[in-house]
Amino acid sequence: MGMDVYGLNPKLRSPEPTIxxxxxxxxxxxxxxxxxDKWMDENPGFYFRSNIWWWRPLWDYVCTIxxxxxxxKDRAEGHNNNGHKISATKAKRLGQNLREAINSGHTLxxxxxxxxxxxxxxxxxxxxxxxxxVEDDTSEHPFNTLCKSCKGKGTIxxxxxxxxxxxxxxxxxxxxxxxxxxxxxx
Length: 186
Description:
- The protein has helices at 26-42, 52-65, 72-77, 88-104, 106-119, 167-180; strands at residues 2-7, 47-51, 84-86, 124-125, 155-156, 183-185.
- By secondary structure, it is of the alpha+beta class.
- The strands form two sheets. The protein has a four-stranded antiparallel β-sheet.
- The relative contact order is 0.22.
């Protein structure tokens, strides 16, 4: 699962390239995607994508930056890919505030604080063996073999540790926000 975030009225520097797949060779299709990728780079407000693992901490940070003007609904719905829209005014302000936060070192500090928090999280009970360290004796292995997920410990790394946060991802989203004309999170 991921987040496809579409600019509602993006600033475009050129028309979007198109192709007729029915009438195009494999070689031409490959060339088209090279042109399309270049076009996407030149038009950052058109589309932003993020898998769920990268999106969650990014949106958490965005909510911190935009706390004074993002509504409670914006903040909650931003974690879902159900088509919630952020207005052009809010998107532009987010882009400007994110740029300021990146340039001031706030984003780096947030990243470092988050990493320290992650390092201090306790492990959580293994979801496969429910913390027992052994496979359920009703499974296909009725001899209480060690759980393959936790290797018999009964605990696993906290799932929050699987959600990365990188400044480059924030920078890409910042550019998208500023040029999106508002956006829809799908």
